[in-house]
Amino acid sequence: MISVALIEDNRMVREGMAALLNQTKDFKVVATASGGDPALLRDANPEVILLDVGLWDDDSLSVAEMVKREHPESKVIIMDLLPVHEDIVDFVNAGVSGFILKDATFEELVGTIRSVANGARVLPPAMTSSLFSQIAKEAVVKSRAMAIDSVRMTMREREVVGLIGEGLSNKEIASRLNIATHTVKSHVRNVMEKLTLHTRLQIAAFSHRGADA
Predict the structure, then answer these.
(1) Which of 88, 91, 109 is nearest to 100 (CA)?
(2) Looking at the domain assignment, is residue 139 inside a domain?
């Protein structure tokens, strides 16, 4: 069961999305709000948070930063009509895991939530992998400078970082390295802790920077 919180200031949209998600067998909406409410999210402890980018009373980027600061285990998906390049970079730096266009189908929304809950990073289908790579590189340039040689990672963790940088999923990495998928997830968690990163996208960016150095 994937627990979901929905931050959307349009009541009709908020209630409609909550109703549809609750009718989907592996989803449960545990909180809804018109703006960022730390206490509400703390009590609900959602696995995935859907965040509208156009909140009237709150700055969505600030809400995303607050969520990742106070609820690092929760994954954030930004909902927008078409986020501009600079906004995507800012949200990536804030630790956001995915984006979904507001004109997406319900099936696409559900698929995005499931993918993000499973550790993937998701951009709208209209945005190419080359753009994703470009965003990743920009994100790491704006973040703290790090040298890969100064971080104590195992050889396997370094291999996982490199494969994430190539865009491979956990399942594909497991197949490439001939290890279990849950083992890959464990390596990813360890890498995030050692590099003080929050998303697979940032790991990919870190990998690209190391390769370009």
Answers:
(1) 109
(2) no
Over residues 29-66, the pLDDT tens digits come to 998 887 767 677 777 888 999 988 777 555 778 888 88
Same domain, 93 and 48: yes
Q: Looking at the structure, do residues 114 and 156 belong to the same domain, yes or no? A: no
- The span from the CA of 201 to the CA of 204, in Å, is 5
196 φ/ψ sector (left φ>0, alpha ψ -120 to 50, else beta): left
Residue 138 lies in a domain: no
* Pairwise CA distance, residues 132 & 124, whole Å: 10
Q: Judge if 156 and 83 occupy the same domain.
A: no
CB 142 within 8 Å of CB 93? yes
CA-closest candidate to residue 60, choices 131, 127, 9, 119: 9
Whether residue 132 is contained in a domain is answered as: no
Q: What is the pTM of this model?
A: 0.58
Alpha-carbon distance 87 to 80, whole Å? 11
